[in-house]
Amino acid sequence: MEFEINDEEIEILLQDLLDNYGYDFTDYSRASLKRRINRLFMLDKFPSFSLFRKQIQTDSTYFRRFVEEITVNVTEMFRDPAFYRTVREEVLPVLATHPFIRIWHAGCSTGEEVYSMAIMLQEAGLLKKSLLYATDLNPGVLDRLRKGIFPLRFIKQYSENYIQSGGKEDFSRYYTAKYDWAKFDEQLAAKMVVATHNLVSDRSFNEFQLIFCRNVLIYFDRNLQDRALQLFDESLDTLGFLALGAKEQLKYSSIYKKYRQLDNKDRIWRKIT
Amino acid sequence: MAENHVKATPQLIVIGGSAGSLEVILKVIPALQLHLPVAILLVTHRKPSNDDILVDLLNTKSNWPVKEAEEKEPVLPHYIYVAPADYHLLLEKDHSFSLDVSEKVNYSRPSIDITFESAAEVYGPSLVAVLLSGANADGVEGMKRIRRLGGYCIVQDPATADVEYMPAQAIAQGVANTILSPEGIAQFINELFTAG
Ligand SMILES: C[S@@+](CC[C@H](N)C(=O)[O-])C[C@H]1O[C@@H](n2cnc3c(N)ncnc32)[C@H](O)[C@@H]1O
């Protein structure tokens, strides 16, 4: 496969998105954007860059598809089981001491991460007093989250992850299978507050004891990473927890000094001041 | 065979491998001379839980410092970087690494194709790629791109490969500049920087 859309054209598209729709991707890492944009260009068989550009500019339905395709929405339940085990064993007991628990999943995609957390809260007897705020830039993925319906073919992997994360129940009690789909228990979704939120341009909207932002910052440049982390810092209670993806770091950001990493290799930090 | 010369001073060597490649890597890496002015990046298919094990193992065998490639980290000469499992690894124009969790390609994450293609875009003729033993064709498309953008492609001699499918595919599709045994690969890299 050849890259048809060159660096200059990528910049033109990013500027268009900003001018026409107010979506700012200019502080995203370019290598992934370039690959995703070229992939979409090929997939949708555009004959030329100018037609591609025009479609994005004039057709807001296509613009939505464009944004959904260039931002990577791949996710999993109990992704990195050891991470979830740490949440279960070290974070939940602290959350349990609060009368009311608020958790923010920023960049939650289709919600597999949020359902994983809701399951763990339920098992710890904490779901009743919890709210899980699920936000993402893409309205499309959030529609899927609300339905709580995931492809059945992934469930085997998810239940293996669940067991490795320390889950003791029969995973099948959390969903009903129908044709190729697994629909998750509506009691889980009942505790989720779902809204679009853009980490580039939207502000802090509440205070939380735990914030997840996993596998989102890898797509941002260092500046934007730092801005997003400051937003999380503003939104996190003192002694609250910040959970990042398996390959994401706090150490390059300006908020680093206010946080202490938990004593294991998982990317979970506690706000100490 | 003018076209079979490395065209520019190599800045990055990307080595891709799948089933049967670890033993080759364990032959090539210890045989490298110290302080070659180039960065080496290993992209291999393996289980997510084995990240640290591979880095630790290579550190015991290599004179070069070996570390996992981290997102946004600048690519420096004299280092051997290992692509983390379960992420695609891309190169940015400013010669730093980027990670991506998008769909698997060729049933693989990291995909060798993705790293080869993105390194080709950034490094052009100063890229050398090596494709080792493996059971699928990941890496072949990437080598095509590398060739078009002036880079140099070494393919392991399938006769020396534990699983010959991957190098055999590369050769069948005509992307190899040269075909070498594991010893030959180490020697080739060592000689890249000797005058003449
Ligand atoms: C790879 S998914 C991560 C999903 C989940 N957190 C996980 O780790 O499996 C990245 C998500 O970040 C979202 N995203 C990207 N840029 C964003 C932004 N500026 N604001 C909010 N969400 C964003 C994407 O839409 C996508 O759903």
Which stretches of chain B of 5+ consecutive residues score pLDDT under 50?
none
What would the average pLDDT of chain A be, to the nearest integer?
Answer: 96
Strand content of chain B: 15-25%
Quaternary organization: heterodimer
Proportion of residues in helical segments of chain B: 25-40%
Q: Write the element-wise H/E pattern of chain A from the N-terminal end onward.
A: HHHHHEHEHEHEEHEEHEEE
Head-to-tail CA distance between termini of chain A: 50 Å
How many domains of chain A, as an integer?
2
Number of strands of chain A: 10
The largest sheet of chain B, given as strand count, sense and whether it forms a barrel, is: 7 strands, parallel
Name the poorly predicted regions of chain A.
Answer: none
The backbone outline of chain A, from C-alpha atoms, is: globular
Secondary-structure content class of chain A = alpha/beta
Specify the number of helices of chain B: 6
Mean pLDDT level of chain B: 94
CATH superfamily of the largest domain in chain A, called what?
Vaccinia Virus protein VP39
Report on the biggest sheet of chain A.
7 strands, mixed
CATH architecture of the largest domain in chain A: 3-Layer(aba) Sandwich
Bound molecule kinds, no repeats:
S-adenosylmethionine
Kindly provide the radius of gyration of chain A, computed on alpha-carbon positions and rounded to a whole number of angstroms.
Answer: 19 Å
Topology:
The complex is a heterodimer of chains A (273) and B (196).
Chain A (H helix, E strand, L loop, with lengths): L6 H15 L8 H14 L5 H10 L1 H11 L10 H15 L5 E6 L5 H12 L6 E7 L2 H9 L1 E3 L3 H10 L10 E4 L2 E4 L1 H4 L2 E5 L11 E6 L8 H13 L1 E9 L14 E3 L6 E4 L2
Parallel strand pairs in A: 1-2, 1-7, 2-6, 7-8
Antiparallel strand pairs in A: 3-5, 4-5, 8-10, 9-10
Helix pairs in contact in A: 1-3, 3-4
Chain B lengths: L11 E6 L4 H7 L10 E6 L6 H11 L4 E3 L11 E3 L5 E4 L5 E4 L11 H12 L3 E5 L8 H9 L3 E5 L8 H8 L5 E3 L1 H10 L5
Parallel strand pairs in B: 1-2, 1-7, 2-4, 3-4, 7-8, 8-9
Antiparallel strand pairs in B: 5-6
Helix pairs in contact in B: 1-6, 3-4
